Fold this sequence. Notes:
Layout (H helix, E strand, L loop, with lengths): L5 E6 L4 H12 L9 E6 L5 H13 L5 E7 L2 H4 L5 E4 L11 H22 L5 E4 L4 H10 L9 E3 L2 H15 L6 E2 L2 E3 L7 E3 L4 E2 L2 E2 H4 L3 H13 L1 H9 L5 H14 L9 E6 L12 E7 L7 E2 L7 H25 L1 H5 L1
Parallel strand pairs: 1-2, 1-4, 2-3, 4-5, 5-6
Antiparallel strand pairs: 7-10, 8-9, 10-11, 12-13, 13-14
Helix pairs in contact: 1-10, 4-5, 4-11, 6-8, 6-10
The site of nicotinamide-adenine-dinucleotide has 29 residues, from α1 and α10.
Amino acid sequence: MAKPIKKIAVTGGAGQIAYNLLFRIASGEMLGFDQPIALHILELPDAMKALEGVKMELEDCAFPLLKEIKIGSDPKEIFKGVHVALLVGAKPRGPGMERGDLLNDNGKIFVEQGRALNDVADPDVKVLVVGNPCNTNCLIAMSNAPRIPRKNFHAMTRLDQNRASYQLAEKSGNPVDSVTNVLIWGNHSSTQVPDFLNAKIKGKPAVEVIKDTQWLENDFINSVQKRGAAIIAARGKSSAASAANGAIDAIKAIFTPTKPGEWFSSGVYSAGNPYGIDENLFFSFPCRSKGDGTYEVIPNVPWNDFLKGKIKLTEKELIEERELVTNKLGVEKIHG
Length: 336
Ligand SMILES: NC(=O)c1ccc[n+]([C@@H]2O[C@H](COP(=O)([O-])OP(=O)(O)OC[C@H]3O[C@@H](n4cnc5c(N)ncnc54)[C@H](O)[C@@H]3O)[C@@H](O)[C@H]2O)c1
């Protein structure tokens, strides 16, 4: 018997990430090749014509699993009954714009979308925030959606994890699928901490395979932290296909049992975390899933002094981001 349809919301539907994401979701790559889906796509009114073009192209793919496409600008219409919501749409940082301005502008989007999800989405909707600054946007969305379990919200650090995996594979001359237990701690920003200490290559610690501490502590970390900027410099636009791929991997990770002894990175709510990180942040931790859409944070992944120093910096940045937003958007909701 065919499975019931899963409704998937994607925001920013006329943007460049969505153009690389929607078709792969519709093909079955994200939730499985036996899972019928409906796409609910949100855009701003000004971009609705472009979104109509995207819808036409989705239709022209004749995807067997794609049972319905709904487009619109009202989050309360688009989020009705959705089981998965990928919040991609956000304003890019403009010239001369401070981080606080971006947080303030984009924060408003995530207040509205958090409320709409709260009011009309499936009560167990899984939410992935991609729009930047994604960790703090995720905190805002969650804070405005008290009906939805806090553990259902994720901020995307999977692209960073994938970038780190590739760097370790390339440096060691091994295939990328021999690299496991790669992990990003903290914020999806240039303070993020790509962890080489716990990474493995062919089951052996990456530090024993790549014996170059200088490279691991400097080039590796810097190249992952600054990869987004390097792509903008090369392409003239921010990463889109790899970001869409990261979003698909991030959702797949919570709907697939994690292999024993392995983990994936996701920015998740820090309340009750086993690492002593401030309890009211979206922080990227090592996670594992039973494959039912839930996850747990894996405890006791060791830090050395080098990692600890960097993890404290990314935590500090997230606390500062939270302060910037709460000062401007109303503190009590977020700290409530
Ligand atoms: N977490 C990550 O790893 C990661 C990686 C790459 C990009 N990003 C972020 O993803 C976001 C989207 O990137 P992009 O390249 O697709 O941008 P884009 O500018 O090409 O597209 C964004 C789209 O969102 C729409 N939009 C804006 N506000 C909206 C709202 N309130 N509701 C619905 N739609 C809205 C815009 O009209 C636009 O079409 C950016 O914030 C970017 O910084 C995150």
